[in-house]
Specification:
This protein is α/β, with parallel strands linked by helices. The chain has one domain (2-183): Maf protein (Alpha-Beta Complex). The chain has helices at 10-20, 42-57, 81-96, 160-166, 168-183; strands at 2-6, 26-30, 61-70, 76-78, 104-114, 121-131, 147-149. Strands 1, 2, 3, 4, 5, 6 and 7 form a seven-stranded mixed β-sheet that branches. Helix 4 (160-166) packs parallel to helix 5 (168-183).
Length: 184
């Protein structure tokens, strides 16, 4: 089964293809300009983007939105993670929490599957962890060099297999694939 993945992020496409390689679901990247709405809700953002993509493409789509929520920063950058990454990068995040003892953080993902004229199907995933004292590793993308999953000692950039097996995105896409096998 082929489904359009509405995103301009080639790293997310590669990650999802890796996660889905043992399923019968094949995603096709559709790089369309989607103006991201401002909201504190990943779900609201993902649904809005999915509605836009379905109306533009006239076909079923998957849209994913995710964010890094840091406890000591009042869940910042949260839904603004992409924008903050573009402006200050992960080094800027390390500098923001440099003198803060509590480095707990949660990565959250929302995947929305939407068919034309249907209600959206919503799948979520979370991964708790901490922000590293310094960036480590060379694999992955985004905040991977500074995120250490709970009960692990290496960042996702140091251990990409960990991310592929238990990331927030992987959890959400697994829920989607479980649903898809009986509903599509």
């Amino acid at each position: 089964m082929k489904i359009a993945f509405a995103t301009g992020n080639k790293n997310k496409v590669l990650e999802l293809k890796k996660i889905l390689e043992k399923t019968n679901i094949q995603i096709i990247q559709k790089n369309i300009e989607i103006e991201e709405p401002r909201s504190e809700s990943l779900q609201e953002i993902a649904i809005t983007k999915a509605n836009y993509a379905v109306n533009k493409l006239k076909m079923s789509v998957i849209v994913e939105d995710s964010g890094l929520f840091i406890d000591s920063l009042n869940n910042f950058p949260g839904t603004y993670s992409h924008w903050v990454y573009d402006k200050i990068g992960y080094i800027g995040i390390i500098n923001l929490i440099n003198k803060i003892k509590t480095r707990k953080a949660t990565f959250k993902a929302v995947i929305v599957y939407l068919e034309p004229n249907k209600k959206p199907q919503i799948f979520t995933g979370e991964k708790q962890g901490t922000i590293a004292l310094e960036s480590k590793g060379v694999d992955g993308f985004g905040y991977d060099p500074i995120f250490i999953p709970k009960n692990e000692t290496k960042t996702w950039a140091e251990n990409p297999n960990s991310k592929n097996q238990s990331s927030h995105r992987q959890m959400a896409i697994k829920k989607f694939t479980n649903w898809a096998t009986t509903n599509l």
